[in-house]
Every structure is written in structure tokens, then in C-alpha cells.
Amino acid sequence: MTxxxxxxxxxxxxxxxxxxxxxGVTAGNRLRQVLHAIMQGSRPMLVVxxxxxxxxxxxxxxxxxxxxGGTGHxxxxxxxxxxxxxxxxxxxxxxxxxxxxxxxxxxxxxxxxVASSIYLAGAAAATSLLWMLVYQxxxxxxxxxxxxxxxxxxxxxxxxxxxxxxxxEFFLLIVSHEAAGWLLGITFYRFGFWxxxxxxxxxxxxxxxxxxxxxxxxxxxxLSGLGYHRPPxxxxxxxxVVVTVLGLYAGCLVLRPLALKPAKG
Length: 265
Prior knowledge:
The protein has 265 residues and is mainly α. 75% of the residues lie in helices and 0% in strands. The chain has one domain (24-255).
């Protein structure tokens, strides 16, 4: 009886303490605040990139198509390399840009790592959705004008009408390059330039593994010429997800003991 009473008393005290905590002190709200800060800080760069790509490859492409009377190729397909390398740069920037700021506010490195991983996955999904939607819009326009929408690069999809495969290809490629960028940013930030260079093969492993597993876009032709072919997608896609998650987790492990660096200037 005494034990049961003590247990109930402890539970009541814990509930009282939890209820008395300020809203921002809870782990869930702190995580949301960190995620919000990263989103707010990175949004201008991401949105400007989307706008530039749409203007350059869609509007510019339509002008070229009208002048040429139809080139026979998807103009949007010429921009397939850009989101991977832009997203890698986005991953590189997170630690130098935000770590000192959030840790100074009492945020743990682990929580920052979780928030960064969520943000990178969300940014990859948003960029992949944009690529998929523009392919669909271009297909409708080309069909209306009687133009051919041939693809310049090799893909997991054979037609832009395969919207699910379009999204899957870009999401897997983008998020894995973000993970590689995340590792690059952390290793160079923690270990300095020369040791960061020595660690390059490990840092870029998520992106390199994905390129060799999916065999899509510009790398497909050279690899096919060497006789290398993509493994079944049912095998390749889960392996890409595992490698990407391990890359993000490795970055978290490297980040945990990292001492803050004084601001320059």
C-alpha cells in the first residue's frame, strides 16, 4: 500500500513540475524552434534557387522551343544535375551557419543534428516535388503544341508521366547528396582543411553510393559503357535510404564532441 501511494505521489509531483515548465523548455518545442530557425535562415537561398531554375529552364526553354519550332527534347531535363549539387552545398552550410547560434541558446548538438536531418529531408522532398511537377507541366505543354519531350539523360523513369518514379529518383539523389554535404561541412569545420580533405572519400560516400546504385542522369552513360548496370530498384532504393541515414548519423557522431569556434571579425 505504501509503495503504491509513494508511486502516485511521485507521478503527481512529476506532472506538476512538467506543467510548470515554460512552453519553450520542452524538448519537442525546442526541436521545433531549431527547425524553424534553420528553415527561416535557409528559405531565401532555397526559394531563389527554385525561381532561377524555373525561369532559366522553363521560361527560357519555352522561348527556345518556339523559336526553333520544337527541339524534340525536354528543356527541363537539361537541369537535372543542378539540384544534387545545390543540395550538397545546402548540407555543407548548415553546421558553419547555425551550430554556434543554436548551442549558445542551450540547444544540444544532438538536437541540432536531428533538426538538420529533418530539414534536409524536407528540403529534398520539396525540391523533388518541384522537379516532378515541372516535368508534368512541360509534358502537358509539349503535347498541346505537338512537340516531342525526349529526355537527354537516362533516368529511373522512361516517361515523365511516371510521376512517382520521377519523384523517387530526385528525392533519393538529392537527400543522399545533402547527407554527403552535411558530412563535408562537419568534417571540415571540426578537423580543418587538410584533415577534411583526407576524409573526403568517407564524406562523399552517401552521394557516390547512390550514384552507383541508381545509375541515373549524367553518370549512367559512362557506367553503361563500362558494362556496369543498375541493380534492381527494389534493392537499390532501400540501400540508398540506409546509406543516407548512416551518413546523417555519422555526421551526428562527429558533431557531438565538437567544441564551438569563436566568431571571426
